[in-house]
Amino acid sequence: MSKNRLIYLPLGGAGEIGMNAYVYGYGAPGEERLIVVDLGVTFPDMDTTPGVNLILPDIGFLRDNAERIEAIFITHAHEDHVGAVGRLWPDLRAPVYARSFTGHLAQLKFEEAGQDPANVEIVGAWPERIEAGPFKVAFLPVSHSIPESAALVIDTPAGRIVHTGDFKLDTAPGVGEPWDEGLWREATKGRVRALVCDSTNVFSHHPGRSEAELKDPIRKLVAAAPHMVVATTFASNVARVKTLAEAGLAAGRSVCLLGRAMRRMVEVAEKTGVVDAFPHTITPEDARDLPRENLMLIVTGSQGERRAASAQLSRGKYLGLEMNEGDTFLFSSKTIPGNERGVIRTMNAFSEMGVDIVAEDDRYHVSGHANRPDLERVHALVNPECVIPMHGEHRHLREHAKLAEANGRVSLVVVNGAVCDLTGARPHIVEHVEAERVYLDGDILIGALDGVVRDRIRLALNGHVMVNVILEGNEALGEPWVETMGLPETGRSRAALVDVLEQDLGQFLMRAKARTLRDDAAVEDELVRITKKVTQDEIGRKPEVTVVVSRLEG
Amino acid sequence: MSKNRLIYLPLGGAGEIGMNAYVYGYGAPGEERLIVVDLGVTFPDMDTTPGVNLILPDIGFLRDNAERIEAIFITHAHEDHVGAVGRLWPDLRAPVYARSFTGHLAQLKFEEAGQDPANVEIVGAWPERIEAGPFKVAFLPVSHSIPESAALVIDTPAGRIVHTGDFKLDTAPGVGEPWDEGLWREATKGRVRALVCDSTNVFSHHPGRSEAELKDPIRKLVAAAPHMVVATTFASNVARVKTLAEAGLAAGRSVCLLGRAMRRMVEVAEKTGVVDAFPHTITPEDARDLPRENLMLIVTGSQGERRAASAQLSRGKYLGLEMNEGDTFLFSSKTIPGNERGVIRTMNAFSEMGVDIVAEDDRYHVSGHANRPDLERVHALVNPECVIPMHGEHRHLREHAKLAEANGRVSLVVVNGAVCDLTGARPHIVEHVEAERVYLDGDILIGALDGVVRDRIRLALNGHVMVNVILEGNEALGEPWVETMGLPETGRSRAALVDVLEQDLGQFLMRAKARTLRDDAAVEDELVRITKKVTQDEIGRKPEVTVVVSRLEG
């Protein structure tokens, strides 16, 4: 009864936009040979993950089955697809395959994680195929907001899967391969068992627009700007960076790239040949000496990130450059939901400097993802036996499945941790594996459910009271000592909160029975209780409380 | 040389959307008699104000000059205009004037703050005038997203000011007075020294739409829904709540209001006569017994607030009611920038339940603020000698000023704390007063710059290490004791972080010179330094550190 089966298991990316990690398996149940598609990160926020550096998928399932992994494939070089590969690789130790631009950036991830970049093998596009156990995998070029994005055509003994990666239908993306419907038709012809498909823009009802449409508007905007122009976009959108730089040069401006990611992306793009003739740029040192009206800066920080170049400029000088009254700042980007506060903070800081801000304007930005009608076009083109939505929050996946079903197709929402059997007549969930999140916290990986971050959130919401008492036998030695952090100094009684606490805790110790004072746990419980009650009475909140009872040998 | 002057001083609302508090003064410099317009709150967020309950304007200037305050006027009952009046009033003790609906809600604010609601005097609309020292003030009705919003026509010996409050140009708002151009023309005719004007929607380029446009689309949506319908909007938008309820009844559904604010707003609207014949509603208890397809809930929580009815429903049962597969949830609202995460969290939770979500759809929502062309219409109608933008972030104020100037008007951006002299030929800033923010933190008001909240943010970002040592004379008594909160348990050395810390701190104490050990401050400094260094080495982050040195009499 151990008939071979073909399974699909998202470990990240199916229930969020970010942190992509997908697994395919073929073989007897529980013994499937596995391939991994993408190992990305997502970014922390103050609401749910204060102090966390990065969020990675929980690959416990893969770690437990590492010997079954044949290969890892990276579709493109966005952080949410490649960002975790270096750090997670030591648990997987399978060969990593990617095309040239993506592979070079994956190799940098290996270097950053102290791993050998030679584990990343650079491969060619379709019709080249990589054999990985029962899988034969080809990288099928597709347009996206980063060069050299690829779908995967995955042939298995149980049929073919087309895994789109991130994509849009852009026949003139500027940099990177255009959408080539003929190529896709040829590469995906015949029976396709499943189309596993990007869902990001399923709520956008108009057909997607081309990167090429931006050239004229951006050129006009830059030409008309009276003083310095600063533009921001995702550094990885090399086509956009090039369009911006060309607009600067066309307006007689020297162009300077600011931000490490910006320079790195252009370097790797040039090195791997995905862009040729990137416009000449100058250094920040040289930029400082130029008249402002002859200058254009292209900077990181389109999402208002506090440490990026745009935010630094919004706070004052950055590398000797600064914004002035009458300068223009162009957000050639869209604010990702959740990043609004940071972006708005940056905008208002520029506004206070008298900078003219151009933002949230469709003339200067197009999305990198296929819109609803584009998705329908790809469904029709590939004509799969079923559509499995991926790369979306739950609402995107559900809407995408409804769209496919409305067109008479079979579809199923498969969320992180759900193992979907693609072998039978209809795809169906057969089991669930752990697929939480892992936090890079400082230098340490911790589980999302370990409680560490929950405690930090509690400290932020409630403040902290620390109580120290020294006991000797059945009496307290001296007074209790209280310190607070993150709490108002004085409360209702107009006395210092620590004084009120020390007094009330001291009274308890004075009056407590000898039996209580010989029992550390009982003393501790009572001190916590009194501390919470007094703090609630004084300032109206129940703090986190840490009590340390030190006992001298009596 | 103490010529009388007319001044305008925003203490909140000019540099943010929220926390409105404006001051006008007339008299000799430094001795102006004052009136206050609106006393609102703004809401905390985890990024900048974790654990804070509410944010209020810093009215230090008013407190210091309380005897100069003639009166307080409340334009309308939105929280960002009325929310702080009860809590701040004890420092001001001037009569509060408002129209009926607004005044009743202001009186509730007084009750909540333990103050006498009789301090709020209900007054009529223009042409009724309130004399307040050198000011004569009339409430001029205007349409907005809450009933009975009013502009103020403020006559002073130095000329007339028109203070718009929040407004839109809606000739069919459903509930509340329609925009009446004739009335405005009459009330604002003659010389107007300054138009102090709402800037919220200055970036919206199309003319505003009417509340009335929503009736048909909402009716159709509710009629077509197969199962239960739940709709959310701001409770204070009584017109919208009524439109939603009428759509429910028209579709043969019973309507139930969920959420305290929702019921309170409708009650006050009925009591004060701003709405007559509000549709019949049923209790949650009765709703539970009805077939789902005959039911419509109208709930609080359009901004994803964690404790509101919508979020409660997204987490499961609420008052015995719950959402099921095939139900419809309508956000008849727009997500305020910064609230995206909460709204999206709610949406995805509903999506997991199989609920069909309708959101961010212009057919089911219109804004309550005047758009750019509407602002130009009002500028032209009032034809003031200068336009002072208010009610906006800096970028809104600046854009509004540029708009006025582009039309040949005098305009000036006046931010919180800037005292603007309106007497001379051109408005100009003459001085600055403190105008920070005050936090309601638990039950206590604390200053934004007190450091309390900054410490909580540090705890959230860095975690906390507490170190205890007991000294006697020049030696340590026992080992140091370490507790941590919000930090990973084990680090690079694979030993428990607290053990590594206790060992290294213990070694320091053992080896320290007698002179050092007699100096509490020196011991403390060194313990902090070692704790940070060891924690950095072990887990890659520098925590907050609290050291308590207890000294026994030697």
Brief rundown of the structure:
Chain A is of the alpha/beta class and 554 residues long.
Explain this structure to me?
Two copies of one chain form a homodimer. Chain A is an alpha/beta fold and 554 residues long. The first copy, chain A, contains 17 helices and 26 strands. Chain A has three domains: 5-206 and 367-447, 4-Layer Sandwich (Metallo-beta-lactamase, Chain A), CATH 3.60.15; 211-364, Rossmann fold (3-Layer(aba) Sandwich), CATH 3.40.50; 463-551, Ubiquitin-like (UB roll). In chain A, the strands form five sheets. Chain A has an eight-stranded mixed β-sheet. In chain A, a hairpin with an 8-residue loop joins strand 1 (5-12) and strand 2. The longest helix of chain A is centred in the C-terminal third of the chain and has 20 residues, at 520-539. In chain A, 54% of the residues are buried. The model of chain A has no long low-confidence stretch (mean pLDDT 96). At the A-B interface, helix 11, helix 13, helix 14, strand 23 and strand 25 of A face helix 11, helix 13, helix 14, strand 23 and strand 25 of B.
What attributes characterize this protein structure?
homodimer, 554 residues, alpha/beta, Rossmann fold, 6-stranded mixed sheet, globular, RNase_J_2 (chains A, B), exonuclease (chains A, B), zinc (chains A, B)
